[in-house]
Design goal:
9 strands; five-stranded mixed beta sheet; about 50% helix; two-stranded antiparallel sheet; Beta Polymerase, domain 2; 7 helices; alpha+beta; about 180 residues; globular
């Protein structure tokens, strides 16, 4: 197995997820690191947001991370051998006002990475666009949607529940322009 120094974001995430799961702590990767994985590097993130799915005691997480060689610094965990830093936002696991119902898994030689599905990753990015007008997150949602199979009807339905029909239409139109342009070239 690779050392922490040699691990990419996917491997490091799976290493930590697996170590925590061995102690019955379930975390799910979300945020920018999901975008990096699903956009195949169009976006780069240096932090791994591992949502504490069942709000396990933070002391338990702290003990395991300490055992893996990570030290707490402010609200993050850092390790001398990696540029990535780890954060454990508390649950519940959701996108906007909706709970996440399905967890994706990616197997690596370092373990199993539990993360948002591509559809929920798009919703996660769109939530920031819908509620805080974050144009960068709109672009990230487009990158994920163009490179992965996503449930566009579920995204539309969720967007209407988030009371963001106009912004959804903006996302949908921009996504279709990108797909059309790529087909023509």
């Amino acid at each position: 197995m690779k050392t922490i120094k040699e691990m990419d974001i996917k491997e490091l995430g799976s290493f930590i997820c697996s170590a925590l799961k061995a102690s019955n702590i379930h975390v799910v990767l979300s945020g920018g690191s999901c975008v990096e994985i699903y956009s195949r590097g169009e976006y780069t993130s240096w932090d791994l947001d591992l949502i504490n799915q069942y709000n396990e005691q933070f002391k338990k997480i702290h003990t395991i991370m300490d055992g893996l060689g990570f030290k707490e610094h402010d609200r993050y965990f850092v390790h001398d051998e990696t540029k990535y830093f780890i954060e454990f936002p508390s649950g519940p696991l959701g996108v906007g006002d909706a709970p996440v119902e399905e967890i994706a898994e990616i197997e690596t030689e370092a373990g199993v990475l539990r993360l948002l599905t591509p559809t929920d990753c798009v919703k996660d990015r769109l939530a920031a666009y819908y509620h805080w007008d974050d144009e960068q997150c709109l672009q990230q949602a487009i990158w994920v949607a163009e490179q992965n199979e996503v449930d566009i009807e579920a995204i539309k339905k969720w967007s209407l529940q988030e009371k963001s029909e106009q912004k959804y239409l903006n996302f949908y139109n921009k996504l279709n322009k990108v797909k059309t342009y790529k087909k023509l070239n």
